[in-house]
Specification:
- The chain is an alpha/beta fold and 262 residues long.
- 32% of the residues lie in helices and 26% in strands.
- The longest helix has 15 residues.
C-alpha cells in the first residue's frame, strides 16, 4: 500500500488491488488522445520509450503500432503481471519492469522519450526529474499526460462521484476541471517546455464498462476500503447504472506537458 499525505488525505491506496478491473476497464483513451502524442513526434518509429507508471501497459500497447521500442515500468507487480498478459495476448513485443519511477535503473542516455500518463501526481518530483534527465538522450522529451471525466458537464459522472464519496469521503480525485500543468520548479535547469495544452474528448461507455471504469479508480478498487464497503458501493452503483441508456458518452478533458531535456 502507498500513502501520500497530499492524496486522499493520507489514506492508503494500492493500484495492485484493482489490477484485474484496471485491465478490463481502464483502456479507454480515444484515438485522438494517441494522435496528439504522435503529432508531437513522440512514440514513433526509431524512438526508444520508457513509460513510467505504465499500469497495465495501456500506452505502450496502443502506441506500439507506430513502431517505437517501449519499456513499461510500474511500482505494482500486479499491474505489470496484467500488462505482460495483455501484451502477450496481443502478440506485441514490449518489455516491462516492476519499479517505482524514482528507482528505475537504466544506463544514462538510454531513452529518447519518457512518458507518464495518469501517474505524475504520485511522483517525488525532487527525485524524478534528475532521474529522467539522466535517462534521456540529449534533447530527449519527458511527456506528462492526464485525462479525466468532467462531472460539471455530466450528470452521470457527477452521480458516480457522489456515490464514491458516500463510501470513501477521503477520495480527493473528484470534481476535476480543465487545467494545464505549470512548469515544475524541480525541472528548472534540467528541462524546458516544448508544448503545453489541453483538449476535450468524448468517451463512449456501456453500463458495464462505466461501472467497471468507476470501480477501477483510486476511490474504490485501489483504495484501502474494506471489501464489504466496496461491495456496498458496487450494489448501489450497479442499481444506478441500470437506469442509464445502454450506451452513452462522458465528456473528458486531457492535458499534456511535453518537456525537452536541456
Amino acid at each position: 500500500m502507498q500513502v501520500n499525505k497530499n492524496i486522499d488525505h493520507g489514506k492508503a491506496f494500492d493500484w495492485g488491488r484493482t489490477s484485474a478491473d484496471y485491465a478490463r476497464f481502464r483502456d479507454i483513451y480515444p484515438p485522438e488522445f494517441y494522435q496528439k502524442i504522435t503529432d508531437l513526434g513522440l512514440c514513433v518509429k526509431g524512438r526508444k520509450i520508457l513509460d513510467l507508471g505504465t499500469g497495465t501497459g495501456v500506452l505502450p500497447r496502443n502506441l506500439h503500432k507506430h513502431g517505437a521500442n517501449f519499456t513499461g515500468a510500474d511500482i505494482s507487480a500486479n499491474q505489470i503481471e496484467q500488462a505482460r498478459r495483455l501484451t502477450a495476448e496481443a502478440g506485441l513485443d514490449i518489455d516491462y519492469v516492476v519499479s517505482a519511477a524514482e528507482d528505475v535503473d537504466f544506463p544514462a542516455g538510454t531513452f529518447d522519450v519518457v512518458t507518464a500518463c495518469q501517474c505524475y501526481v504520485y511522483f517525488d518530483k525532487k527525485l524524478v526529474f534528475p532521474k529522467i534527465h539522466k535517462l534521456l538522450k540529449n534533447g530527449g522529451h519527458f511527456c506528462i499526460l492526464f485525462m479525466a471525466w468532467l462531472p460539471s458537464e455530466s450528470g452521470i459522472a457527477r452521480k458516480t462521484e457522489e456515490l464514491i464519496l458516500k463510501h470513501n469521503p477521503s477520495w480527493s480525485a473528484h470534481s476535476m476541471a480543465r487545467f494545464t500543468y505549470d512548469f515544475p520548479e524541480e525541472a528548472s535547469g534540467l528541462f524546458e517546455v516544448a508544448d503545453s495544452f489541453h483538449f476535450d474528448v468524448a468517451v463512449s461507455f456501456t453500463r458495464e464498462t462505466w461501472h467497471g471504469r468507476a470501480k477501477a479508480c483510486r476511490g474504490i478498487g485501489a483504495s484501502s476500503l474494506p471489501s464489504q464497503t466496496i461491495a456496498q458501493w458496487e450494489a448501489e452503483h450497479k442499481k444506478y447504472v441500470e437506469s442509464l441508456p445502454e450506451i452513452f458518452e462522458i465528456p473528458h478533458f486531457a492535458t499534456v506537458l511535453n518537456l525537452r531535456r536541456v
